[in-house]
Amino acid sequence: MAVYIESKTLKTVPKYDKSTPQYEQIAADALSNSINHLNFAYSQKLCGAEGAVEFYDSGVYTYDNHGKRYLDCLGGYGIFNVGHRHPKVINAVKAQLDQVCLHSQDLLNPWAAHLASQLASIAPGDLQYTFFCNSGTEAVEGAIKLARLATGKTEIISTNNSYHGVSMGALSATGREIFRKPFEPLLSGFVHVPFGDIKALEAAITENTAAVILEPIQGEGGINVPPIGYLRKVRQLTKKHKVLLILDEVQTGLGRTGRMFACEHEGVVPDIMCLAKALGGGVMPIGCFMSTAKIWKALEANPSIHNSTFGGNPLACAAASACLEVLMEEHLPARSAVMGNYFMRKLQEVKEQFPKFIADVRGRGLLIGLEFQSKELREAVQEELFHRGVLVAGTMNANRTIRIEPPLIITESQINFMINTLISIFTELHDKLTVLHYPREERVS
Ligand SMILES: Cc1ncc(COP(=O)(O)O)c(C=O)c1O
Q1: Cβ–Cβ under 8 Å, residues 26 and 52
Q2: Are strands 54-58 and 61-64 parallel, antiparallel or unpaired?
Q3: Do both 261 and 410 map to the same domain?
Q4: 422 in a structural domain
């Protein structure tokens, strides 16, 4: 265990020089600083135990301080849609560094304005206006406030097992007790209904309902794809009752599910849409919520009633603009659909081969959930994948499920590598379990 020694002198940023690798020192410093100054839980994390420190990244790969390469099938929880350090995004940010980094807050900000116009040109329907913030949580927070402001109503309907972030407003929408309970009382007026259940949703609508907030596919809930037609019915229902529809596309947006926005699979146009994660091109943090000119009128009387100092900063906007261009130029939404189908077909084959291990394969595009028969099995396989150079992670609200959300530029041969690694782990596990299950004398040779 690392020992905490308080120091009053400020250490300079260590130089991680590839030509003079001081791997052991880097790892030791990273671990003790993480334990002493971030969270003690790092001592229990796999990367901590292994001393695997992030060192370099490129394309679909992350490299640790030992030079070990990891195929990134996690995508930083959905931020690396265009890959790690895409040259176009990097160059845009480098150029921006030489011009304006953070804005004066007083003059017009041409980078934010340009990005907003780009988003309007690709967003579904008549979503025309954008407010920029710095994260998905803030995007949801702002969307909830806008819905209340525009309707004059207070109730928000969300879904069980949803994940919308952890600030008090976004957390009130999030549908999992483990996150909510310790912070109650949360905002009043939030109710949760089962995801995919249109009747339950209709029953929850009252005269005071401002909005329904949904992820088109629940990400942290375990990659839950609702029944076909659900989103369309939600749209019809919300229109009928004059309730706003907020779609949280923080994880599903920007090509992840095989369309630019997941709501496009059902031709649905929300009233408010939240984006973040991949919007920054895997280089800068940025989030936003978008809405129609009609709803945006609610903000006209006092445009700074909702605001953010760093929101829309030129560096983040330059990255996001370049990211949108890459998504379009490299046809990444379509690529996600094709590669996602391939990945899921291969995973289905693995499931048929090892039904004792895999319970379900589900998802859309390159947002894939791999559900195991138990949490313990999921943890063991995830750890082994890590050792063999593949990054994946569980989902926040479903502990038997591994999320697979690689950069959308992943190739067939990289998918094959992941699949073959998985098969080799299952084969070894299968043999081990067989040995454990049948004592030697009972085994048929
Ligand atoms: C659908 C959804 N909404 C909101 C958030 C919160 O985003 P952030 O972590 O950037 O605050 C997440 C994060 O995983 C998410 O998946």
Answers
A1: no
A2: antiparallel
A3: no
A4: yes
Among 287, 312, 329, identify where a domain stops.
329
Res 5: pLDDT: 59
Domain boundary among 277, 306, 329: 329
Question: Using CA positions, which residue lies closest to atom 16 of ligand 1?
Answer: 251
Question: pLDDT by residue (tens digit) across 33-91?
Answer: 999 999 888 877 777 667 788 989 999 999 998 889 999 999 999 999 999 999 999 99
**CB 134 near ligand 1, within 6 Å:** no
- Of all protein residues, the one whose alpha carbon is nearest to atom 7 of ligand 1 is 136
Which tokens is 367 given? 């947002």
State residue 438's pLDDT score: 45
215 C-beta closer than 6 A to ligand 1: yes
Q: How far is the CA of 314 from the centre of ligand 1 (A)?
A: 22
CA of 182 to the centre of ligand 1 (A): 19
Is 19 domain-assigned? no
At 413, which helix (H) or strand (E)? helix 412-437
Does 276 contact ligand 1 (Cβ within 6 A)?
yes
pTM given for the model: 0.93
With a 6 A CB cut-off, is 79 part of the ligand 1 pocket? Answer: no
Residue 97 within any structural domain of the chain: yes
Domain that holds residue 424: 52-81+332-437
Question: In this structure, are 353 and 220 located in the same domain?
Answer: no
Cα 72 to Cα 154: distance, rounded to the nearest angstrom: 41
Ligand 1 pocket test: which of 277, 395, 401, 405 has the largest number of ligand atoms within 8 Å of its C-beta? Answer: 277
**How many residues belong to the chain?**
445
Identify whether residues 292 and 154 lie together within a single domain: yes
CB of 179 closer than 6 angstroms to any ligand 1 atom = no
- Let me know whether 130 and 246 are in one domain: yes
Tokens of 223: 């990659």
Ligand 1 pocket residue status of 75, Cβ below 6 Å: no
141 pocket-lining for ligand 1 (C-beta < 6 Å): no
Q: Which residues of the chain have pLDDT under 70?
A: 1-7, 12-22, 48-49, 433-445
Whole-number mean pLDDT of the chain?
92
Q: Which residue has the tokens 């559900």?
A: 371
In a domain, 4, yes or no: no
Tell me how far apart the alpha carbons of residues 176 and 163 are, in angstroms, rounded to a whole number: 8
Report the relative pairing of strands 398-404 and 190-193 from DSSP bridges: unpaired
> How many folded domains does the chain comprise?
2
Q: Residue 252 CA: which ligand 1 atom is closest?
A: 1
- Residue 400 is classified by DSSP as E
